[in-house]
Write a structure and sequence with these properties.
Blueprint lengths: L1 E2 L16 H13 L6 E3 L2 H13 L5 H21 L5 E6 L1 H5 L1 H16 L3 E6 L13 H11 L4 E6 L20 E2 L4 H5 L13 H13 L3 E6 L3 H8 L5 E4 L8 H8 L5 E5 L1 H10 L8 E6 L6 E7 L5 E8 L4 H7 L7 H5 L13 E3 L6 E2 L4
Parallel strand pairs: 1-2, 1-5, 2-4, 3-4, 5-7, 6-8, 9-11
Antiparallel strand pairs: 7-8, 9-10, 11-12, 12-13, 12-14
Helix pairs in contact: 1-9, 2-3, 6-8
Organism: Rhodanobacter fulvus Jip2
Pathway: Amino-acid biosynthesis; L-proline biosynthesis; L-glutamate 5-semialdehyde from L-glutamate: step 1/2
Subcellular location: Cytoplasm
């Protein structure tokens, strides 16, 4: 379950248990029914801002935000701990924890072990050390990633409105609630606004993006109003008053899900049409002969995007995968036969630049981008 800053921030600054208490009672009811909960909680920056307001009230720099997060993390966990009799565990994740396969699996093992001990993890992004270009950005998407990480049955997103509407109900009186979404179409995504609350980083669009990620992993998502005590009470009894976003019937293999949705490094491998077809339609690995060039500063073991020429000079992202060679090495072996890799580099990590087992195709979900052009 993800709880946003708007449900924890006090009107005068800092954190409040006003809405957290009802959510904690819901979690306790779940525990009593034998359900395991992983809590993804925002609020650290809001808590830290109050503690530093005499020193940096107007400071919006990244360093100030990180200092607020460092102070506020303990406050956030302390708030939740006051509401439970059993122990909680703080788990802070970074972009690199989710991008690196070994660290990703380590995080999954830690969360699973905590749940085995009946300890509820309280997860947040580690804003204290994250840098702008390598942040996860919002806890909605982090919650979807964590849901897949622990193989959750359901993703619950507690927000400050009643769910998805056809338009923003705070500015459009004609907006109507959407109780159920069978598929996240372009029209559904267009219903979401872009802005979040004054204390949070996400809005309705990030919640739909999170639901889309969760659906890919076979996980349904529920959006509900965490400020409405009746809604929370009904939810504890299995009755939803909000929006249910369904999942697809099939479920990606956990590794393929990770490859498709984890953050990639800045950079890409540009391939020709033949290689693009082989990857997209024949389940092939990426070999040096089909590579035009590599852009960026990525290293061996990094997750990168594989792109090909699209329309109007744009590049089309066809797949994502773990590179067996760094960008500089790929540029030295591009357009060569696999048997020549050793001669070009003086060593070889194998004939595949990206092995098919380390590669996930995007199909029609691939993006056109001019960023690398």
């Amino acid at each position: 379950m993800k709880v946003g800053s708007s449900l924890l921030a006090a009107d005068t600054g800092g954190l409040s248990t006003r809405y957290a208490l009802g959510l904690a009672q819901f979690i306790s009811a779940c525990h009593a029914d034998g359900r395991e909960i992983v809590l993804v909680s925002s609020g650290a920056v809001a808590a830290g801002r109050l503690m530093l307001r005499d020193h940096s009230h107007e400071d919006t720099s990244n360093a100030a935000r990180q200092a607020m997060a460092a102070l506020g993390q303990t406050q956030t966990v302390a708030l939740w701990q006051r509401l439970f009799d059993h122990p909680l565990a703080q788990v802070l994740l970074t972009h690199d924890d989710l991008r690196d396969r070994r660290r990703y699996l380590n995080a999954r093992a830690t969360l699973s072990e905590l749940l085995n001990y009946k300890i509820m993890p309280v997860v947040n992004e580690n804003d204290t050390v994250a840098i702008d270009e390598l942040t996860l950005g919002d806890n909605d998407n982090l919650a979807a990633i964590v849901a897949a990480l622990v193989d959750a049955d359901l993703l619950l997103i507690a927000t400050d409105i009643d769910g998805l509407y056809t338009a923003d109900p705070r500015t459009n009186l004609d907006a109507e609630p959407v109780n159920e979404v069978l598929e996240l179409t372009t029209e559904i995504m267009a219903m979401a606004g872009c802005a979040g609350s004054s204390v949070g980083t996400g809005g309705m669009r990030t919640k739909l993006e999170a639901a889309e990620k969760a659906a890919t992993a076979g996980i349904q998502t529920v959006l509900f109003n965490g400020r409405d005590s009746e809604v929370v009470s009904l939810l504890a009894r299995g009755q939803l008053r909000g929006t249910l976003l369904h999942t697809s019937a099939t479920r990606l293999h956990a590794r393929k899900y990770w490859l498709r949705h984890m953050p990639a490094v800045t950079g890409h491998i540009h391939v020709d049409a033949g290689a693009a077809h082989a990857i997209a339609h024949e389940g092939a690995s990426l070999l040096p002969m089909g590579i035009i060039r590599a852009d960026g500063m990525f290293q061996r073991g990094d997750m990168v995007e594989i792109v090909t020429d699209g329309d109007a000079g744009m590049l089309h992202v066809i797949a994502r995968g773990i590179a067996q060679y760094g960008a500089a090495e790929i540029n030295r072996i591009a357009r060569t036969h696999t048997r020549d890799i050793g001669d070009r580099l003086g060593y070889s990590y194998g004939e595949n630049v990206v092995h098919r087992d380390d590669l996930a195709t995007l199909g029609d979900t691939g993006l056109l981008t001019g960023e690398y052009a």
